[in-house]
Amino acid sequence: MSKSYEQLVKRVQRAINSPGAQSKHWVEIKRHADDEQEDWARVISELGTVENVTLTPIDDEAEHVGISWNPEESMS
Predict the structure, then answer these.
(1) Which end of the chain has fewer CB atoms surrounding its CB within 10 Å, N or C?
(2) pTM across the whole model
């Protein structure tokens, strides 16, 4: 795992685990200029495989994405 990918994953995890995101079950993430395109695509692809998680592109390039999840569904 590359260092740039690892840093991106940690940033996304921090956003998802923030108190505001946890209370709303929703967060927006954006690709930063220094994020490698390949790393970004991998993170988005991997998030798309998580059960009860929905990704919503906010821009045409999918560099700004909304992530929502339903914790009740994941417990069933």
Answers:
(1) C
(2) 0.87
Give pLDDT tens digits for 19-63: 999 999 999 999 999 999 999 999 999 999 999 999 999 999 889
CA dihedral 48, 61, 56, 9 (to 10 degrees): 50
Residue of 48, 17, 10 lying closest to 32 (CA atoms) = 10
Token digits of residue 41: 């695509």
Burial class of 31 by CB neighbour count within 10 A (0 to 12, 13 to 18, 19+): buried
Closest CA to 9 of 74, 20, 68, 1: 1
Residue 76 in tokens: 């069933």
